[in-house]
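Q: Convert this sequence to structure tokens.
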Amino acid sequence: MINEIILLKNSHWKFTLKSQKNFFKKEIKKNDLHNLLFLNKKLIGYNCLRWKNFTIKQKSSSFLLFDTLIVKKKYRRKKYSSLFMNFINFIIKSNNKKSILICEPQLINFYKKYEWKILNNIIYPDIRVKKTKRYMIF
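A:
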């Protein structure tokens, strides 16, 4: 299944198979949550929620890091992304945790439609974020 996920991710981001396999081995933990979207038994969407600790306003807490969201290009703008986002938000709520994502500016309005909010004053030393990106919270 990892190979299928990597191929799906490569439809949007260009990573080598080797670099993605290394990413899975190094960064993805057993208790992380992998959400898969299938249509007619074909993988068309993937999301990973990774357990992390963040510091917000000098208070450390456990959160779900919204690591990846990808829907196969030909299924975008056909309500599959909306269905998938509502499912992911349900999973986050079911775990009774907050979730944080690092967002490109052009995607902020997309996530706002699903109750995500821009977050300031966050410190997470393991992730280097370009100044143009924004943290969002659900």
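The mean pLDDT is 86.
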